[in-house]
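#dry-run=false #mode=assembly
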Amino acid sequence: MTQEEVFKNLTAHCKEYGFVFQSSEIYDGLSAVYDYGQNGVELKNNIKRYWWEAMTRLHENIVGIDSAIFMHPRIWEASGHVAAFNDPLIDNRDSKKRYRADVLIEEYLAKLEDKIKKEVEKGRKKFGDSFDEAQFLATNPNVLRTQAKWDEVHNRMVKALNDNDLNEMRQIIIDSDIVCPISGTKNWTEVRKFNLMFSTQLGNISGEDGTIYLRPETAQGIFVNYLNVQKTGRMKIPFGIAQIGKAFRNEIVARQFIFRMREFEQMEMQFFIQPGTELDWFAKWKETRLKWHKAMGLGDEKYRFHDHDKLAHYANAATDIEFEFPFGFKELEGIHSRTDFDLGNHQKYSGRKIQYFDPERNENYTPYVIETSIGLDRCFLAVLSSSYHEEKLENGEERVVLSIPAALAPVKAAILPLVKKDGLPEKAREIMDILKFDFNCQYDEKDSIGKRYRRQDAIGTPFCITIDHDTLNDNCVTIRERDSMKQDRIAIDRLHEILQSQTSMTSLLVKN
Ligand code: GAP
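#status=ok
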């Protein structure tokens, strides 16, 4: 099965099992907006908790806040979003489809990379054990031609993005013979700038036109509260402020399910530091954040760093942590060295002094900032896409299993009386009553035990606990582990301890 087909099946699975629904579905849906269902919200909340606790509990110098979505409109002028939060947009006149010009070029570059990979595979097959990849890459004429093309297009794109040269962006598309994936033609419009912020009207800001924005990032809510938190929390630099919340962007191209949405959630942390120490802290936070990701156990090889070619208007160093989604390596988290751009501008635009008195250096300064910013929905997709498996079992049956890290799984244990009579449901309810205060458990007595196992596998429940007739005499149950499907007979007294050790958030946090 191709990765594309797996992704299609995963999307359908998300709907069928209550993880993600299209927003406003009964009205034919709203493009690039999604709702989380009964299992999705549990998984999402667990990811949030993992991030929040790793940030705030494991770092004594990081505290959290929850700022409002609506903010004073001047904030978005100070942050540079009104002037510079734009994407280059291009339309194909034949298909009437709209694209991001930079994404069209990046996709073209990815095709060239694939071409090189295919040449390497051909060479490997041809030369067998004597194949020297480095030498092949340095000498094969086809590879050299494709690499030269890649370098040329890549360099032109980086320059055009940095210069904000929209005509050159279009020219690269034309020169590279990039066609519209729908119409197959090169009938492109000019490239135009498109601001991604949603605006709305606030009732009565007297004397102003009342336009306010839905925040496109949560970070600004942190910057404008820097003084409040520093003073009331008596925080000393270096320290951080963390926040989880909704952000809104009017994305031109919203594709790939919940990867790019118009309403999404971010988990952001701004770390305030002494100017001049930013590159050390940048390296430290890169390492800390990668460790957080890898602790989930989705596969170390699925992560890589991608340093930015074009720096955002506020950054002096930036990298993405990319994850290998079914549609390739894509950005999951951004780590940015934001200098004093934001605090400095808020000082200028608000007229308020936003500085830190450093007792060790006996001086005032505007702190520099390292930001870590991860999309919660993308993290959700990373967990689900790497956990989704279609398996053929030894007995010929098939199952779909979500091998979600146990600490993040929506339901930790299913409580299953073997039959609906003979006192087994009552005994099962007793067990449910012991466990439900600490673990999200699901009681299920309908259908055969095999069908019930399949239902729990499909939502990623790590443990199924079956109560049978022997349980009434020996106070033991059968516990079945999701991934191995191994079954053990254990005393009811041990259930709490087993679930605690296997499914608690601590099991992830200790690996950070
Ligand atoms: N405050 C910095 C900032 O917002 P960003 O790279 O634009 O930086 C941070 O966004 C993260 O937010 C991204 O790495 C991504 O995971 C997530 N994100 C951005 N746009 C998104 C969208 N339209 N849908 C879902 N997640 C998105």
